[in-house]
Amino acid sequence: MLLAIDTTREYATIALGDESGLVDQISWKAGQRLSMELLPKIRDLLGKNKIRKTGTSLFGKAAGSRLLSCLDILVVTGPGSFTGNRIGVATANALAYAWNVPVVGVTAFELYEEAANIGRRETVVVLENIHDLVYASIMPQSDNVTGHSPSSPRLRRARAQLSSTDNLEKEYFVGTVGDLSKKIVHTNQKFIGEINDDLKKKILKAFGKVEVANIDLEKSDRAKILLRSGKKIFEKLGSKKFVLPVSVLYISKPNITIKAKHK
Q: Do 252 and 176 meet the contact criterion of CB atoms below 8 Å apart?
């Protein structure tokens, strides 16, 4: 079974799934109470579905009577709420360590790619940030490797990488839409993500006639997308599952950092 955790947004989501798909989920407006509410919500979700590890319950007697031979954990690593990211990842790591089960991370960018169900190399995922900034995930394309001859080592490596979608390395970006337009040489890609009308206008102004699609993960059922993404990751791992800590995806420094004043 798979436990999925997403605390990157104002509304947190935890979901439980098995081979047949979504078993149960809880979504709630956590806000500043996330650190107090996340573990009790996970306890309630597992207890409601009568899940416990062999021999002992996960959180005490309330966890029920269903034995569970293996539980995989998926957590969204960001970008998103700085505090929410850390709470979610720290909780997932702690549970995986305590229960001796595998834990893997998935980025918010990858959730939008999964929801869009289109080729990763054809997309630029754009997510709103604060102060007129955006986060973006830029997929490499051989056409974007400019200034090199067709036989150059760098271009050969880029084309070899593109031969397999699974091997694509992602480049993450934070800045204005204008700054993003300087990073992408060719605009034969589709822009997807949290794109409201205002952001869409900025993208069209910066890139010209490109395809732009807003994807509402709530309408697309965030829990099911989380479980689909996790299932694919663990299927690729196969028997190579292991318990290692997942890291938060930091694209930029938090705005809460305050420099000490020295007299």
A: no
Q: Which CATH number among 3.30.70.100, 3.40.1130.10, 3.30.420.40, 2.60.40.10 corresponds to the domain 2-108+220-237?
A: 3.30.420.40
pLDDT in tens, 3-47: 999 999 889 999 999 888 999 999 999 888 999 999 999 999 998
Residue pair 34/82 in contact by the 8 Å Cβ criterion: no
**Contact criterion met (CB below 8 Å) for 78 and 248:** yes
Q: Where in the chain is the domain with CATH 3.30.420.40?
A: 2-108+220-237
d(CA 124, CA 78): 16
Cα gap 201→257, rounded to integer Å = 32
Contacts of 33 (CB under 8 A, 6+ apart): none
Q: Is 137 left (phi over 0), alpha (psi -120 to 50) or beta?
A: beta
Average pLDDT, the chain: 80
Distance CA 247, CA 103 (A): 11
Tell me the C-alpha to C-alpha distance, in Å, between residue 116 and each of 110, 111, 207, 217: 10, 9, 21, 10
